[in-house]
Structures are given as structure tokens and as C-alpha cells.
Amino acid sequence: MAASAAAPTTNAVCIISDDSAVRRSLAMLLRLEGLAVVSADTMGAVQAARSAASLTRQRCCLVIDDSGPRGIEGLALAEFLARRTDGLPVVLLANQLAATVRQRAAAARVAVVVEKPVTGDAIVLGVLRALSAGAAGDPCC
Question: How many structural domains is the chain composed of?
């Protein structure tokens, strides 16, 4: 069922990357898929944008660029969030998929790991898979 203009979006994506071009490209791609998107270079900025956009009750997933926000490795952020949140699906955009990266991602409950360079289809499918893996009541970011 398509959402009307007045109906709230049921799925949202929060993007964290210190690369503004990556944030803009991902946001545009995901908005074309009908997803609500907030993006920033830090988790705190994403949380503030999410509140301002009224996404607190949306089903949500978090896309983390492996280069990480402001020098923090993306996988380390996913590991930190796994200890702080329960069930927030994470899509990690990784530069390399060595066995240790896969193991750490699995331990951090990363829903989907997409290896760079990525295609638009791979990102969209990864986000949709992560959203479907999360419970309807997952907090957004």
C-alpha cells in the first residue's frame, strides 16, 4: 500500500559518514526509494536530526560508512552501538571484508555488510534487508 502525502513514512534510514559526498549520495538514493533519511558526520548529530525530523517512532536502520565519523572506525561504532542499543539494524559499508571484519561485524550484530565499491542496488537491497530484519518497534538511531 503506497503512503499518502499525509501518512507518515514507515521506514527511515540514518546515515553516518564523515564524507559529505557519501552522505548526500546515499541520502538521495534512499529517498528515491521512498525512505525517510537523516544523515550527519556524528551519531549525536544524527540523533538531533532524527528528532527534528520526527523519526523517533519509525522503523529504522543505521548505515555506517566504514571510514567512520570523524576518524572513528565504522565497525568500532557498530560494536559500541551493539552494546548500547537492542536490535537497531546496522548496514556497514566496508572497504574490505577480511575474515576478522566479518567476525567482528557478526559479533556486533551488524545486519548487512556491503563491500566497497558499492552499487546503488546493493545499498538499497542491504537497507531493505536490514529494515525487514528489525522489529517494528525498533528505535530510530
Answer: 1
Q: Give the domain extent around 63.
A: 11-133
CATH, residue 39: 3.40.50.2300
End-to-end CA distance of the chain: 25
* Residue 97: inside a domain: yes
Q: Which residue has the cell 571510514?
A: 67
Residue 69 lies inside a defined structural domain of this protein = yes
Question: pLDDT tens digit string along 66-76?
Answer: 765 555 678 88
User: Per residue in 4-29, pLDDT tens?
Assistant: 344 444 688 888 888 899 899 999 99
Q: Provide the whole-model pTM.
A: 0.78
Residue 65 is predicted with a pLDDT of 85
Q: 19-23 contacts: CB < 8 A, separation 24 or more? A: 19/65, 19/67, 22/65
Residues near 125 by beta carbon (within 8 Å), at least 6 away in sequence: none
